[in-house]
Design a protein that fits this description.
heterodimer, A: Helix Hairpins, 3 helices, B: 20 helices, globular
Chain lengths: ~100, ~500
């Protein structure tokens, strides 16, 4: 079995992370922004698991489990805010959130 | 996270005693959940939270003179961490009183607010003692997610959804940046504890780039939380939109914890030996100092002004990290903790006054935003408020005989030892610009006011608030004149 070099894993996770980040920056719909955040977190998970398997330690996978927990908690808070936004503005467009200026 | 030899228990009694404050808070959170199920009452939960925080504070004070204890691989309790946690607990205790005002106004029972507050303190407590990237991550997320909940907490406020969402999206992005950084560092180093050493052969395999990238990502994640320019864009909006007590939490607890962990991590890993890393930190510090101060100049909203001033203050603090060297570690810790203490006391004074004015405004049916105009003639309407405000502002500006001055003096003397003249000159320019927006606040507080209605004239306040105000005034005065008291605490 050929092993995948760490370098490739890191490149893959960076690309995934970048896709997620572009999603957060470019999307107008807040629901999609939250989804892009998940993509970013999972990209980090890929990097951790790759690194953990290279070093033959459980640390990478432990971190991945922690990241999954974080993602769930973050989305729980995010969706709660999303529902309130929907109630208040009847829309999920991020551009509506621009009342504060100065 | 490999388990040590099996003959030894993972957590001995001495270790458990060392993290007792954190344990008390964690246990308190569980009890609070049960309490909510048993009886929902605003008064009960507030008293309960107060009791838990007080217990943790007492436990923590008793730890002050203990030697350094490594609690498993994840945590390390030392005097600096204990001192920082003391500051955090004191800030949390005073926030209880501050938020009492705005929670009282509605009929709802705000259990969640107190739970989130406890979770936030737990997160900060884990952060300051963490000695491993995993515990850093856990503390970081506990702190930021509960803070998101708190920022968007006040449903009635017109800005709550906006500021909550901004904070959520940006803080989640920042934490994923930080995590990717940790992943990169781990993939190169192979160990996630703070005092892991780099092996030089890995550098030659072309992974050096990933290590540097990881370092940059990690620091930018934390810099976001510290609202260091260029990661500061969320700060003014979130400061303005959050309830005043939460803004205070963000300005103090979150910043103290983040800064302490950053300092701990950087010192342990000796990242500063890397030339490129130094350059990043210097550019961060310079931009924060200049940008924070210049942007604050044109602010009319008091909370936005404080947001920009906090950016500048974090810039000043970064200097301490930049100029630190192997020989002056002790001094570095002392000056940064002193500065953080001064910053906390000053912010506490200002935010206490802001929240009391806000409460008064709401009662008389005015809008919730506090602008500089609201401060007009404050000294004549309520002398103790005015005095406290002036004391806080002077301390932030760094006028002699206040704690802020001594804090800045420490930073300056440390920078002179390291011959960082560039940074010193920027610091002085920054503080000079700072006076241009701090002094107008004081002028406003003293300015004459035409009293139109008896409503305007008196600001009533509760007995507890009066005590809090007077004790803060004495604290500010005493510590400004005798700064050695704090120093001895840090040193012990």
């Amino acid at each position: 079995m050929t092993t995948i070099p760490l370098f490739h894993v890191l490149i893959l996770s960076s690309l995934l992370f970048l896709i997620g980040f572009v999603g957060v920056v470019a999307r107008k719909n807040t629901l999609f922004m939250l989804m892009s955040l998940e993509v970013m977190l999972n990209a980090v998970g890929v990097a951790f698991i790759g690194a953990g398997s290279v070093w033959q330690q459980a640390d990478g996978q432990v971190m991945f489990v922690l990241i999954l927990t974080l993602a769930a908690a973050e989305v729980a808070v995010g969706l709660a805010l999303l529902i309130r936004m929907q109630n208040k503005y009847r829309s999920l467009d991020i551009d509506l959130l621009n009342q504060m200026k100065g | 996270m490999s388990i040590a030899s099996s003959s030894q228990p993972l957590l001995t009694m001495t270790m458990a005693a060392a993290i007792l404050p954190q344990l008390i808070i964690a246990f308190g959170i569980t009890l609070a959940l049960l309490l909510v199920a048993w009886k929902r009452s605003q008064r009960t939960i507030a008293l309960f939270t107060f009791f838990i925080l007080l217990m943790a504070l007492l436990a923590n004070i008793s730890l002050l003179s203990q030697p350094v204890i490594q609690v498993t691989q994840l945590l390390k309790v030392d005097g600096y961490a204990t001192f920082a946690f003391n500051l955090i607990l004191i800030a949390a205790l005073s926030v209880l009183r501050m938020s009492h005002c705005f929670l009282k106004t509605s009929l709802e029972v705000h259990d969640e607010y107190y739970l989130l507050l406890l979770l936030l303190v737990l997160g900060a407590g884990v952060l300051v003692v963490s000695d491993h990237f995993a515990s850093l991550f856990l503390g970081f997320e506990l702190l930021s997610i509960s803070l998101v909940g708190l920022v968007g907490y006040h449903r009635g406020n017109q800005y709550s959804v906006e500021s909550g969402f901004k904070y959520l999206i940006l803080s989640a992005t920042a934490s994923s940046f930080m995590l990717l950084g940790i992943a990169f560092i781990y993939s190169v180093v192979g160990d996630m504890s703070f005092n892991a050493r780099l092996s030089s052969e890995l550098f030659e395999q072309g992974l050096g780039l990933f290590f540097q990238l990881g370092l940059l990502l990690f620091v930018s994640g934390i810099a976001f939380k510290l609202s260091i320019a260029p990661f500061h864009f969320w700060t003014p909006d979130v400061y303005q939109g959050a309830p005043t007590s939460v803004t205070f939490l963000m300005a103090t607890i979150s910043k103290i914890a983040m800064f302490v962990v950053l300092l701990k991590c950087i010192i342990a890993q000796r990242y500063l030996l890397l030339e490129s890393f130094q350059t990043f930190l210097i550019s961060f510090a310079v931009t924060s100092m200049l940008l924070g101060n210049i942007m604050a100049l044109k602010q009319q909203n008091l909370k936005r002004l404080l947001a920009y001033s906090s950016i500048a203050h974090m810039g000043y603090l970064l200097i301490v990290i930049i100029v630190t060297s192997e020989q002056s570690l002790e001094f570095t810790w002392q000056s940064s903790l002193f500065y953080l203490a001064a910053y906390t006391v000053a912010n506490l004074s200002i935010f206490l006054v802001i929240s009391l004015i806000q409460q008064h405004n709401i009662r008389s049916g005015n809008q919730e935003d506090i602008t500089l105009l609201d401060l007009k003639g404050l000294f004549w309407r309520a002398p103790s408020y005015g005095f406290l405000m002036i004391l806080g502002v002077l301390s932030l500006a760094g006028i002699p005989l206040t704690m802020g001055f001594i804090g800045k003096f420490y930073i300056l003397s440390q920078a002179t030892i390291a011959n960082a003249w560039w940074l010193i000159s920027i610091l002085i320019i920054g503080s000079g610009i700072g006076l241009a927006y701090y002094l107008p606040i004081i002028f406003k507080v003293f300015s004459n006011v035409v009293i139109t209605s008896p409503e305007d004239k008196k600001i009533k306040s509760h007995f507890i608030e009066q005590t809090l105000i007077y004790s803060l005034i004495t604290l500010g005065l005493i510590l400004g004149i005798l700064p050695d008291m704090v120093n001895q605490l840090i040193r012990s």
